[in-house]
Amino acid sequence: MDGPEKFLHGFLKISVSGDQLERFLNLCHARAISLEKICRQLEQNITAYISINDFRKLTPIHRKTRVHIHILEKRGLPFLLYKSRRRKCFLTGILLCAVLLFWLSGHIWNIHIDGNVKNSTPQLLEFLDQQGIIHGISRNKVNCSQIAALLRQNYPDITFVSARVQGTRLLLTIQEEALTEDLQKTESPCDLVSNLDGKIVNMVIRNGTPMVKTGDICKQGDILVSGKVPILNDSQELVRTEYVPADADIYVRHQIAYYQEFSLSYEKKLSDGSPKTSWYLHAGNWILGADTLEKTRYLTSVEEFPWKITENFVLPLSLGKITRTPYKVQKAVYTKKQAENKAAAQFKRYEKQLLERKIRIVDSDISILVDGTSCITKGTLTVEEACGKRQPVEPEPTPEVVKNS
Q1: Helix 121-130 vs helix 144-154: angle between axes, to the nearest 10 degrees?
Q2: What's the confidence (pLDDT) of residue 260?
Q3: What pLDDT digit, counting tens, does each position of 340-367 carry?
Q4: How confident is the model over 174-213, as pLDDT tens digits?
Q5: What does each C-alpha distance from 75 to 38, 80, 112, 246, 350 come to in angstroms?
Q6: Cys-Cys link to 79, which of 74, 144, 175, 294 (CB 3.0-4.6 A)?
Q7: Helix %, strand %, coil % for the chain, to 5?
């Protein structure tokens, strides 16, 4: 008999004894009376859990089977309220708590934004705050269509917004323009020129006239795709020239230098005592109990646990935990193995940064040199990178045809 619903309605633990126990159980099954956690104590005695409503249905079965039924335990909210009927403060507290939960469930306490990259979450929350969409706003005042329209109107790089209210949360899913500002589509005629020196390894032309091909070597300033498109007739004679915005995906393989250096001596922080824990309460914009004094020589970590009744019923309260561990500084020196591991970790982070910029490493020639004072990592990387920037092109004037009279 576990679960909030059964606790709300109340249930009993009963003991049933007699010669007709089997008939008693069969009649209960026939009348859809639920007995849970049945346990045989003796040959003619069992214990079981039963709801209050089903217990009231046992009267005719009791008369037929002549079994003895005893109530062993009473559990649930009805019995708790009955025992507390003279505790007016307790009942008043339960009533106020129910009213408070009802009021809290009618407001938005968590605004969750997902999918934003260019526009930071604090920036979008500040904009929503200026529009009156704040934490604590009534759910009846939230117009999801209007919020989506405001975000698209004020942020041109946001192409799609989905806004919905789920419980006490306002969920915003945003999709931003993926292309960079320089490569955004435009209707103005332009060429696509190279901004890198290297070998072209891949080309996908969408618009314009290609001036190079895969395998060619390009230099900065070379025209990769021209915005001039010649229109030829059946005799391959030039009829006219159209000017379009050149558009293509072109990848160039080139080399970049890599260099990292750090000192072998460093300061190491060692624990100098047992950690100390303090708690605080975060209610809305108020923080109660947090020690905001600056602590030197302490390693500080902060955890915050939001209070929520369900996944989407988030209360405007959270409990915070601050852990401070005293430490002391001790001078140390990296061993050769430690220095090499740190240099390798630095290179991994650099490789991750390149991948985030959509630059892929295809080959590397890196060496790590550890001398008496420092660790130097240097070499060259062969990478493949998207190439091309737009350059406006002015249409040439159409030559006038002179007619002989």
Answers
A1: 120
A2: 93
A3: 999 999 999 999 999 988 899 999 999 9
A4: 988 754 444 444 568 899 999 999 999 999 999 889 999 9
A5: 17, 8, 40, 77, 62
A6: 74
A7: 25, 45, 30
Residue 225, both tokens: 């795709």
**Alpha helix positions (H), 15-71:** 21-30, 52-56, 59-65
274-333 per-position pLDDT tens digit: 888 888 888 877 888 766 555 567 888 888 888 876 665 677 788 889 988 888 888 999
Cα 214 vs. chain centroid, distance in angstroms? Answer: 40
Residue with tokens 């945003």: 174
Q: How far apart are the C-alpha atoms of 361 and 363, rounded to whole Å?
A: 6
Q: Choose between 112 and 79: higher pLDDT.
A: 112
The answer to whether 368 and 376 are in contact (CB under 8 A) is: yes
Rounded CA-CA distance 2/259 in Å is 64
The dihedrals phi and psi of 54, each to the nearest 5 degrees, come to -70, -30
| Averaged pLDDT of the chain | 85
3-class DSSP assignment, residue 271: strand
Distances in whole angstroms, Cα of residue 315 to Cα of each of 135, 141, 287, 305, 312:
11, 19, 15, 11, 9
Residue written as token pair 């009213």: 99
In one letter, which amino acid is 313?
F
* 205 vs 284: CA distance, rounded Å: 54
Are 258 and 380 in contact by the 8 Å Cβ rule? The answer is yes
Calculate the CA 331 to chain-centre distance: 40
Cα(190)–Cα(40) distance, integer angstroms: 88
Ramachandran category for residue 315: left, alpha or beta (phi over 0 → left; psi -120 to 50 → alpha): beta
Q: Which two tokens stand for residue 256?
A: 């970049």
What is the C-alpha to C-alpha distance for residues 330 and 320, in angstroms, rounded to an integer? 31
Give the DSSP per-residue string, 113-178.
EES-SSS-HHHHHHHHHHTT--TT-BGGG--HHHHHHHHHHH-TTEEEEEEEEETTEEEEEEEE--
Measured from the Cβ of residue 321, the count of other Cβ atoms closer than 10 Å reads: 13
The CA distance from 52 to 10, in Å, is 6
Element (H, E) at 193: strand 190-193
Residue of higher predicted confidence among 268 and 341? 341
Q: What is the pLDDT of residue 294?
A: 53
Q: What is the pLDDT of residue 352?
A: 92
Q: How far apart are CA 11 and CA 51, in angstroms?
A: 4
Residue 242, φ and ψ in degrees, nearest 5: -100, 150
Compare 2 and 157 and report the one with higher pLDDT: 157
Asked if residue 402 has pLDDT above 50, the reply is no
